[in-house]
Amino acid sequence: MVMHVPRYSKEDFARRGNDLYERTIRAQVEDGNEGKVVAIDVDTGQFEVGEDTLMASDRLLGKCPEAQTWFVRIGHPALHRFGPRNLSELA
After folding, report:
1. Residue 33 burial by Cβ neighbours in a 10 Å radius (0-12, 13-18, 19+)
2. CA 35, CA 74: separation in Å to the nearest integer?
3. How many CB atoms are closer than 10 A to CB 4?
4. CA angle 49, 52, 45 (to 5 degrees)
């Protein structure tokens, strides 16, 4: 297994990933892909869409083996959520 060494601070990594998504990727992937995951190489701007992080990551790493990967869930404010969406799901 190849270990990737981070090239950016956590803050810079997140800023780069979110900026690429908002500036160039969002308009290309938003229609018809809500809930899917986009994997973005923060160095090159290349990206892949998949049903989950593993699928999107595998596709991106197939094209860009040294990718510094940032993930975004299309149409959602966060990649993952913790706990139920609302109290009615507890019942």
Report:
1. middle
2. 5
3. 11
4. 35
- The tokens for 20 are 């690429």
pTM: 0.83
Give the number of C-alpha atoms closer than 13 A to the C-alpha of residue 90, restricted to the C-beta side.
3
pLDDT tens profile 27-46:
999 999 999 999 999 999 99
The CA distance from 43 to 85, in Å, is 34
Rounded to 5°, angle at Cα 47 from 41 and 53: 85
Secondary structure in 3-state letters for the chain: CCCCCCCCCHHHHHHHHHHHHHHHHHHHHCCCCCCCEEEEECCCCCEEEECCHHHHHHHHHHHCCCCCEEEEECCCCCCCCCCCCCHHHHC
* Rounded distance between C-alpha atoms, residue 82 and residue 58, angstroms: 24
